[in-house]
Amino acid sequence: MSQCFGYGVTSADAPLTPMTFERRALNEDDVAIAIAYCGVCHSDAHQAHNDWHNTNYPLVPGHEIVGHVTAVGSAVTAFAVGDAVAVGCLVDSCLRCAACEGGEEQLCEKGPTGTYNARERNGDGFTRGGYAEHIVVRDRFVLKVPDGLDLRYAAPLLCAGITMWSPLRRFHAGPGKRVGIVGLGGLGHMGVKLAAALGAEVTMITTSPSKAADARALGADHVLLSNDRDAMKASRNRFDLLIDTIPNAHDVAPYLNLLGRNGVMVMVGAIDFIPPVHAGLLLQNHRSLAGSAIGGIAATQGLLEFCAEHQVLPQCELIPMQEINTAWERMQRNDIKYRFVIDMASLKAA
Amino acid sequence: MSQCFGYGVTSADAPLTPMTFERRALNEDDVAIAIAYCGVCHSDAHQAHNDWHNTNYPLVPGHEIVGHVTAVGSAVTAFAVGDAVAVGCLVDSCLRCAACEGGEEQLCEKGPTGTYNARERNGDGFTRGGYAEHIVVRDRFVLKVPDGLDLRYAAPLLCAGITMWSPLRRFHAGPGKRVGIVGLGGLGHMGVKLAAALGAEVTMITTSPSKAADARALGADHVLLSNDRDAMKASRNRFDLLIDTIPNAHDVAPYLNLLGRNGVMVMVGAIDFIPPVHAGLLLQNHRSLAGSAIGGIAATQGLLEFCAEHQVLPQCELIPMQEINTAWERMQRNDIKYRFVIDMASLKAA
């Protein structure tokens, strides 16, 4: 065990405050990582506020982690001290079920181990995330940051990026495909960038006319205002794929209407009840309403490599750890373009 | 124009009664068919009762039609007098849009022409269906009944059969796939037979223990009682494909829970609102909720050939035309195993 300094919360109402906690000692297949940057995800605040009624306090959030290897266990061969590495939303899984063997560890049939708030697979205590100076992670769940990918920008790829990448790849976004990204936030802005880089014809679907210029700057070919009934009607039956990043409960019918033949709408943001939807909207055009949850380790590594090669970089605002409570408040009111990244050097300086 | 004798309804409350109506004269690409058998579909009664608020009276129902060619237009090359042929739910479409060119005429972007209650594509009057002595249909929408397929059994394949066949093929039902058919009626019994013939591991999912033996006789490997909470829980995450034939509005959550990784649930029966469903059920296991509507002409021809080759035959009860009102009443209370087929010889005898 080793002492680790970071920021966490002790109850649903408490702000993030500095705290010291224990990290496990290095197992033979573990990698110890000095954290350089950690992205700030909506989930961090949801979990801290116990919105899902399953939070184990004290909670140290953070699952968009990049840094450098400081030590490796005796059985680790893929990593060496000094390597630039990353950790996303998962730090362990059974590695034996069909999902794990199929490269979808996030769907592990035994339940994957989340980077924070999960019971450690070997039993004692809960995992703690990346709002901290270092972390110890099983080698199979550590990613390599490719040369040419700025560490700062790698962080948001680990959750926001892979959440969009996984359905874009699963449903074959690429040249000749019309892809709509619903909602322009942390997820949506990565969706636009990635879909455009994959060669798809990309439409940003938003309620905010003010976001149109930004969406185009990110790579959107078109902007569709979802509260413009005429525009929505004119866009019916047009899309092959929609990825819906809206973070709260909402009617999906207006979006389903946009899907053409065999079109798929993927929910990635709203973990909530979908209001009644008429089955006729699914029968028509043979549409599907699907869900997607982050992505597997190999897919995440593929994303990092794609982003390095194509220089697809999240738009980030770098903050010191001490400003995290303000950042969370701004994130809640969507006052961020488009992702906060904590500069962990600030932690050491404090 | 020619006079045609059949059975139809004149208002939402009226029973089916004998009537004479006009059929269009043979166009150069038309085929005239003497109807030998016509299957009885739930849609026939829905349309007659104006359940969808769009019925044009007088209505002559029937879209599971088999018979023999009596005449062909001057440009028809694929059919000759005497051929055994069939007509399903469609008698025309634009044949130019991406859906038609992709072999999914039922999803025609201009709107397909239904076999009854649709405006004739060339303008005058409405289409009238197969509860009649003959029908005139554009050659591209006429199917060949393969040698070895008993005409009586071909009829229910044209709607019930293709409705199940299309999603079974689209979602790759076959060896190694676990397929669940929800509901044992006209559609469900075809689903079990077809999925079994395709080599899938088939489960009948029903509320009725009394249907277990029948389901196994039809080819189901397993029967799962959807009101047995323990059995449903034990079957979670198990299925690759579910086809839901329940004909009225119902909660889909208990069925979504049964789907494993990348599993798909297809709605084919209930053209109604789906009660609120939690998006988490879709995110988990990357599930999809899809819809499917009958199938294209080429797919329907493929189904007829598959059924001839594998002798996959619907279980039918043959009735004379004069018993149609009783048959509809029995169909409404699900007192039929599993499809009524009208023997049109009875019409001529009357």
TrEMBL record, chains A, B:
Protein name: NAD(P)-dependent alcohol dehydrogenase
The UniProt record lists the keyword Transcription regulation: no
Pfam families, per database record: ADH_N, ADH_zinc_N
Keyword DNA-binding on entry: no
Keywords: Metal-binding, Oxidoreductase, Zinc
Annotated GO MF terms: alcohol dehydrogenase (NADP+) activity; zinc ion binding
InterPro entries xref list: ADH-like_C (IPR013149), ADH-like_N (IPR013154), ADH_Zn_CS (IPR002328), CAD-like (IPR047109), D-isomer_DH_CS1 (IPR029752), ER (IPR020843), GroES-like_sf (IPR011032), NAD(P)-bd_dom_sf (IPR036291)
Necessary cofactors: Zn(2+)
Alphabetized CDD domains for the sequence: CAD1
Domain Enoyl reductase (ER): 8-342
Family membership: Belongs to the zinc-containing alcohol dehydrogenase family.
